[in-house]
Specification:
5-stranded antiparallel sheet; 3 helices; 33 strands; 5% helix; single chain; mainly beta
């Protein structure tokens, strides 16, 4: 671990790696037009509190020409304090204390690129790219159980009662008990050209909502997996090149009626290079849509939906109408986030920059790291975690 405490901006290492099945880094007219707005924001941030780099770790232990990594760190609560757990490209799961010191490495069968979830029985569940699902005991640092899936788990497990639900890369959805026993599974149709990152399901009032890589949004009962409704969001998902691809990467977001101000619950579904749609939670009918290319899950706070897009802007939308309350141009790259930490919104882009803004759209800090950042920051009690494609895990504050 390399530990540092600095408020200086790090020298940039601009990423030249494009994901073979991931997001594009194309310049668009919107991105070109944003340059002057970004310059204005840069002048503002110089008068704000800088972001502090607390520590960094070489998570992946990458070898030359090795593939980029995309695991999503998770914060695990223990009686001895919080732990940080993340899969790595060297077929190990790393466990860190919140001060960045490494506590343990747990060997798994393949590279770990999923998120993780702490279960009610204390185990932590995560997956690998070979299609294995693991229940890890962080008291003994042992694998308590393993289940062979039909495909890789890239998204994050989602809790439901004492169990959990996952969405595999082949559009299969499973419910498992905390002991690794399958309760039910649902098989969606496969899509065409896809992306490496995949959504996770949303669970709300005993129902499961999932956006599949073929463009289907499906709803089912959480108890038995019974089918409720389906809506196709992409008229043609047979794209031959990345520039034509429209696919869900962000997880769907449930907007309860109390927060939408409407008389029904809504589901916000985002498409990369497509639209942000608001669906009826009751039958999946589309109520309204915004032309926004989104690859990171929007954040619902009160009656506002905060959305980061791939043109480098972050917007606060009215959760009911979808109308823009404010919009801030941060970058010319693809944004991920936002996440909420200490009342502030944190975002990152595919050029290695991390941003902190308030909930009214005022930039309050930024820092430039190496590589590209394709997964949203993760809030912890001590700061914010950011993982780049070069295998470095940063703690920021």
């Amino acid at each position: 671990m390399k530990r540092t405490s600095t408020t200086l901006l790090l020298s940039p290492l601009l990423a030249t790696v494009l994901l073979a099945s991931g997001c594009s880094a194309m310049n668009t007219p919107e991105q070109a037009a944003a340059s002057s707005e970004i310059a204005k924001n840069a002048a503002v941030v110089l008068r704000s509190a800088p972001i502090e780099l607390v520590w960094r770790n070489n998570l992946d232990q990458r070898q030359p020409a090795s593939p980029p990594g995309f695991s999503l760190p998770a914060v695990i609560t223990t009686p001895e304090g919080d732990l940080i757990i993340a899969g790595a490209q060297d077929n190990r799961v790393r466990v860190y204390r919140d001060n960045g010191s490494e506590q343990q490495r747990i060997s798994i069968e393949a590279a770990g690129e999923s998120g993780a979830l702490q279960l009610d029985n204390g185990l932590v569940v995560l997956g690998d790219v070979a299609g294995n699902l693991y229940g890890l005991d962080l008291k003994t640092f042992a694998i308590k159980w393993r289940y062979a899936l039909g495909s890789a788990l890239i998204g994050r497990p989602v809790a439901v009662d004492h169990d959990f639900i996952i969405q595999a890369a082949n559009n299969q959805i499973y419910r498992f008990t905390a002991n690794g026993n399958k309760v039910w599974s649902f098989s969606g149709n496969l899509g065409g050209l896809g992306m490496h990152l995949t959504p996770s399901p949303a669970v709300y009032e005993d129902h499961v909502y999932a956006a599949l890589s073929n463009g289907d949004v499906v709803a089912m009962r959480a108890g038995d997996g019974g089918f409720l409704w389906k809506r196709q969001m992409v008229l043609n998902n047979d794209a031959a090149v990345l520039s034509e691809l429209k696919v869900p990467v962000a997880s769907p977001v449930v907007i309860p009626a109390a927060q939408s101000g409407r008389d029904e619950d809504l589901l916000a579904v985002s498409l990369f290079q497509g639209e942000l749609s608001f669906l009826s939670l009751q039958d999946g009918s589309q109520l309204r849509a915004r032309h926004l290319s989104v690859k990171s899950t929007p954040l619902l706070i009160g009656q506002r939906l905060f959305v980061a897009d791939t043109a480098g802007s972050v917007s606060a939308l009215d959760a009911g109408s979808g109308e823009t309350r404010w919009k801030l141009q941060l970058s010319k790259g693809e944004l991920t986030g936002p996440v909420l930490s200490q009342g502030m919104l944190w975002l990152a882009d595919d050029q290695g920059k991390v941003y902190r803004i308030d909930q009214e759209g005022h930039l309050s800090g930024q820092i430039e790291l190496s590589g590209r950042i394709d997964r949203a920051p993760v809030a912890t009690s001590g700061g914010v975690l950011v993982r780049n494609n070069l295998g470095v895990l940063y703690m920021l504050r």
